[in-house]
Design goal:
- The protein has four helices and nine strands, in the order αβββββββββααα.
- The chain has 185 residues and is an alpha+beta fold.
- It has a single domain, classed as Alpha-Beta Complex (Peptide Deformylase), CATH 3.90.45.
- The strands form two sheets. A seven-stranded antiparallel sheet has the order 1-2-5-8-9-3-4, sandwiched between helices.
- The two termini are 21 Å apart.
- The structure holds zinc ion.
- The site of zinc ion has 5 residues, from helix 2.
């Protein structure tokens, strides 16, 4: 089922997600719906907050982003990210590397807004999958960026918080309109 994606201005986007203690039917249905919703919106990632749930759950699929390569390592071995998509990450924990890089980002909760955002060039991720198995991998490129963007959502952090103040100032009008629209609906 495709769920409504909440737009900037909704307070749930600013709420930290709760740790998921038990992977039950509700969580499995939510993850399936989030994947469907993300594909429908042509996104590469979606966090629970974006569909109104304050849980530490996010889904990611970078398979179709041909022009923006991803890198992934499992147990130190480089793997083909496509073979590991989609990712359902429950209670993810990130260890960002020291080196950072700037790249373009958008967000399904900010229609028509993109910005240059600094992120760690490589990040180590530990999480649980839908079966409750512990998963661990490293990511770089678009996947690394997507994981960091989504993990921020789970903490109530939005990509506008990581923009330069000049970029944010130039978007101020658009952001105000988005927030006003989302309050109306
Ligand atoms: Zn986002």
């Amino acid at each position: 089922m495709i769920r409504e994606i909440l737009i900037y201005g909704e307070s749930v986007l600013r709420t930290k997600g709760k740790q998921i203690e038990k992977i039950d039917d509700d969580i499995r249905a939510l993850a399936a719906d989030m994947l469907e919703t993300m594909y429908d919106a042509n996104g590469v990632g979606l966090a629970a907050q974006q569909v109104g749930r304050t849980l530490r759950l996010t889904v990611i699929d970078v398979s179709d982003a041909e022009s923006r390569p991803s890198k992934m390592w499992v147990a130190g071995e480089e793997v083909d990210p496509k073979e590991h998509m989609p990712l359902v990450l429950i209670n993810p924990e990130l260890q960002p590397g020291e080196e950072s890089e700037i790249g373009t980002e958008g967000c399904l909760s900010f229609p028509e807004i993109t910005a240059e955002i600094p992120r760690s060039a490589k990040v180590k991720v530990t999480a649980q999958d839908l079966q409750g198995n512990r998963i661990e991998f490293e990511a770089a490129g678009l996947l690394g960026r997507a994981v960091q963007h989504e993990a921020d959502h789970l903490n109530g952090i939005l990509f506008i918080d990581r923009m330069s103040s000049a970029a944010k100032a130039s978007l101020a009008g658009k952001l105000k309109r988005l927030a006003a629209e989302s309050k109306k609906s």
